[in-house]
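Researcher: Final request for today, and then I'll write up notes for the group meeting. The sequence and the SMILES for adenosine-5'-triphosphate follow.
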Amino acid sequence: MGSSLSCCGNDKVDEATNITGGAGNNTWRIFTYKELHTATNGFSEDNKLGEGGFGSVYWGRTSDGLQIAVKKLKAMNSKAEMEFAVEVEVLGRVRHKNLLGLRGYCAGTDQRLIVYDYMPNLSLLSHLHGHLAGDVQLDWKKRMKIAIGSAEGLLYLHHEVTPHIIHRDIKASNVLLDSDFEPLVADFGFAKLIPEGVSHMTTRVKGTLGYLAPEYAMWGKVSESCDVYSFGILLLEIVTGRKPIEKLPGGVKRTVTEWAEPLITKGKFKDLADPKLRGNFDENQFKQSINVAALCVQSEPENRPTMKVVVSMLKGHDPRGKVMQTRIKSVKYKEELLELDQTSDGENDGGGLEESECGVFGPMEVQKMQDPYMRRGDGKKIGKKM
Ligand SMILES: Nc1ncnc2c1ncn2[C@@H]1O[C@H](COP(=O)(O)OP(=O)(O)OP(=O)(O)O)[C@@H](O)[C@H]1O
Ligand SMILES: [Mg+2]
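Model: Predicted protein-adenosine-5'-triphosphate complex:
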């Protein structure tokens, strides 16, 4: 499968069928189709955990008793194969307590399957807006744990692994929860490995409407700060319980930043908090979370904090050393793109943008966007098309 990878070398994937490393049990191996077929009861509907852009995910149990989640590619085309290859490539490189590691894969002539550890508390999406939302298991402490853990997973990808990795699809359905509600960031099929010395690249737009940074959505400019923007939206979602895009009566769609903006301006923090918390939250932590989210969703990528700063601030420190006045300035999606969004009606947060070369934001009403990759003064673009 190495030949199908375009992002960079894949020596690890080709060499190893069994790797042990890092913390915990990180061994992965190649599975046979028959093994996975048996483990998932023939990929039966009863075993189905959910469905995404890549295909369906099934619960299973291996012959040695391990509970697994098996993601089965729905169509064998070059785009899907690329996603599969990137996911396996990236997963083979990363080891972190907040990243969902690879348990194995199966790559036969006409199937592609990826095997992960089964996460008993499913996805953050299912708790915030899906079938587990009614159980109200997410108290404030858990929410903070999820926010900080997800941020730490991203920090590792951006700053600790070499080459650095940009996830490009940070969203609630891609944050899975283990039995202790420790978050594990999943789904690296859209990830980009950043060669050393490259600060950003220009790519086609992939990702999910509602979480996309404006410079990425408009110009395909991708850097770590795109993930920071998505994380800011995710953080707002965690503390407010609002969807990134919601449908209002009459069909009008509104982003979470548009909703939050006036409440933040008026200092109505209590109205921002998820009603499911019933007022049980740490007020300082809440304000700090809104503060961090506001910094992350700024339209100018260079003004967004790094994930190092985000983690530090969420843990109660402020490395910027000053008290910031929290403000969110929302940016607007084009109406026709909002039409494509399906996030509001169910657990499946759809809205996935496959390969779009168009910008997804309308003219900036609130803020004037400058091309962030234009060198000040000399007018030269420094982006690199990859
Ligand atoms: N390791 C796992 N453990 C438990 N449930 C999982 C696991 N992986 C995925 N799931 C469940 O399967 C669902 C589908 O996941 P999948 O990643 O295919 O789609 P998605 O995240 O909804 O969309 P996208 O394709 O855009 O990532 C998830 O929402 C999640 O609830
Ligand atoms: Mg997913």
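Model: The first strand starts at residue 29 and ends at 30. Residues 54 and 73 are 6 Å apart (CA to CA).
Researcher: Thanks, that's everything.
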